[in-house]
Amino acid sequence: MNHNMISRAVNWARYRPDSNPPQTCAGTLSGGALLGLLLSVSGLAAEPSQEQLEFFESRIRPVLVEHCYECHNSGDAAEGELSVVHRAALLKGGDGGPIVMPGEPSKSRLLAILRHEVEGLEMPQNGPKLDDRVIADFEKWISDGAADPRDQAPSAEELAAATSWDATLRR
Known about the structure:
This protein is mostly helical. The protein has nine helices and two strands.
């Protein structure tokens, strides 16, 4: 069962409980199968806690802005077809597929890339490896479900403001 099918089932249960259940390649999900599926992926359906969102805003987003937005944005640059400026793009991944698997740090390529364990993909590019505490923050964030309140890509103006020289100096 793929992530798209799970998302459809979760969304169906959350927003359209009185309609027909989603179709799969094997047919319609039965009530019991759907209930089992929803229980097994309840972490995907859960809203992030305020603590998780604050962790993202204070420990993850600043690193993404400072070290990643310049090359991996939805505006003028998405090297490797990867944008990290909003949740959907980050979860989609790039040319190499998904890089963040919420709740599964061992399957999240982002950690190996940040640790410089993937030859040719050492990030940040042309810079030193991030501090081990920063990488540990990313591991915790992914383990806790990769909470990310960024529902849409920033406008060109917002992106420019976030990556401007003035913003860099303030950090």
